[in-house]
């Protein structure tokens, strides 16, 4: 089932008005049989991660986006254990950056991540970036397939566009692609490819690293009596993406999840769609075009 199918499935009619029945725990049921909660707490540059993850669990998040490079896998694991939640209730991601790519180093890297988290498995393990070149990328992917077969990771993905390279090498296609994605950088060809191929699209920098003072966004925020971040996140959900907003601020961790009692109408979605500036709209490294 694609993310687009998910979006239409949860659209309900109520008294002549269309309402979206999203919830924090609503999951995308992937063809691989796993579930991905539709909103995650991103923990990049969160230097006191445990309290933020605990706050997020309290607010209802069940998905945390970490990475080896963020150096907070241990803190995420500690927060999980302190939360009292069952392991099956939460969905945790990690990623290996290009300097650790390669077959042996990826196998070792996954084991080290498992140890740091204190988990028996990791729900999603991504190739963090494509900057190691084709040969190493494919060696990395091969290692991740083996870890999946050994039930050490539950699903895996590529954080970039190199999906056809994986397919052409005869590997199983990834189930998730994580890319920079927000109204100013909409990555339309990649999104279209993923949606056609049943690949969940995760949106990083979904609140544009807080740079949301655009007139269109602020005017829509006033209209719906929401803050600009909620408008950007709601746009992401209505597009069928899985946004990963980062906040280390308890009040924002909560407000960034209060997205389910309003709906952007088609005119406002179109105004946000029209903000796309392609790669010039990116605010992070956005390495989708690496060789
Ligand atoms: N795969 C990749 O290469 C990659 C790259 C970048 C990011 N990511 C993932 O995506 C996540 C999100 O991306 P990101 O952290 O770069 O950017 P982001 O989530 O778009 O923005 C985070 C920034 O916005 C601020 N913020 C949070 N809530 C806000 C609100 N309601 N109003 C105004 N500002 C707000 C945060 O400050 P406070 O913390 O002070 O609240 C922080 O400075 C990361 O944490 C990471 O998990 C992945």
UniProtKB/TrEMBL annotation:
<dbReference type="Pfam" id="PF00248">
    <property type="entry name" value="Aldo_ket_red"/>
</dbReference>
<dbReference type="InterPro" id="IPR023210">
    <property type="entry name" value="NADP_OxRdtase_dom"/>
</dbReference>
<dbReference type="InterPro" id="IPR018170">
    <property type="entry name" value="Aldo/ket_reductase_CS"/>
</dbReference>
<protein>
    <recommendedName>
        <fullName>NADP-dependent oxidoreductase domain-containing protein</fullName>
    </recommendedName>
</protein>
<feature type="domain" description="NADP-dependent oxidoreductase">
    <location>
        <begin position="52"/>
        <end position="276"/>
    </location>
</feature>
<dbReference type="InterPro" id="IPR020471">
    <property type="entry name" value="AKR"/>
</dbReference>
<dbReference type="InterPro" id="IPR036812">
    <property type="entry name" value="NAD(P)_OxRdtase_dom_sf"/>
</dbReference>
